[in-house]
Design goal:
single chain, alpha/beta, Rossmann fold, globular
């Protein structure tokens, strides 16, 4: 065995050992993390703004920044406790704006079911399937929140939608958020949605319906990122990234 083959075998053995140890804690190794692939896709499509609907405590924005995204981020979060953390996280970033509101099909108010883990909170009622797969998502409170629309956010913040990614992670409320975007869905440079394969929240639109809906606005399914699964290993959710096909350069 030559030296190069030996080094390769040692690397593979080391990775297997490390994966085995991480697996005991439900963790894994991965090359080229999703955030890096996402930022490359945004850069390739000249997207320099992200409208982050359902920002929670800023996990998504933080991942974008860590992966090298330098564009504008507008993060929107309705829960007061989560928003406090989000606002602190973004405070020193002049290109990261935070807004404390919910987003839906029309302007108004709604009652939010607050989960113990906060990020599973939703305007919709949680189904037992979700709770069984994620017991820490149990609802512990409700909170009255204001609602705005994507269209109103775009107007108020002067967002150039053709170079903006609309990211929606609203725990089953995605269809309402899309409805509030109206014809702007024909213009957004991209959309990222949380997609459910089974009903986790009462009345939510599921994977097939949402995928076809977004495709109807001229967007192409670009990438998937696995979400969470139940105890039997069935995937319950994933994130789908939809982008517009790049035009071929003029000859």
């Amino acid at each position: 065995m030559n030296e190069q083959s030996l080094r390769q075998r040692l690397r593979e053995a080391t990775k297997l050992q490390l994966r085995s140890r991480l697996g005991r804690f439900g963790l894994d190794l991965g090359r080229d993390p999703y955030a890096n692939r996402l930022v490359r896709a945004l850069t390739a499509h000249d997207i320099d703004c992200v409208l982050d609907i359902g920002a929670n405590v800023g996990q998504y924005g933080g991942l974008l920044r860590a992966a090298g995204f330098t564009g504008r981020i507008v993060s929107v979060e309705p829960l007061s406790s989560a928003f406090e953390v989000l606002a602190r996280r973004a405070a020193r970033d002049p290109k990261w704006l935070t807004l404390n509101t919910g987003v839906g099909a029309e302007v108004g108010r709604a009652s939010m079911n607050v989960s113990a883990n906060s990020y599973s909170s939703s305007v919709l009622e949680m189904r037992s399937t979700h709770l069984a797969a994620a017991p820490d998502s149990v609802v512990i409170d409700t909170e009255q929140i204001p609602l705005t629309t994507v269209a109103d956010l775009v107007a108020a913040q002067e967002i150039g939608v053709s170079r903006c990614l609309l990211k929606v992670d609203t725990q089953g409320y995605e269809s309402e958020v899309l409805a509030g975007a109206g014809d702007l869905l024909d213009v957004f440079g991209g959309v990222q949605l949380e997609l459910s394969f089974v009903e986790l929240y009462a009345g939510q639109e599921l994977f097939d319906t949402l995928v076809e809906r977004v495709r109807g606005h001229g967007l192409v399914l670009w990438a998937f990122e696995p979400g969470f699964s139940d105890q039997d290993g069935r995937m319950l959710q994933c994130d789908g990234l939809f982008l517009r096909e790049r035009r071929a350069p003029a000859r």
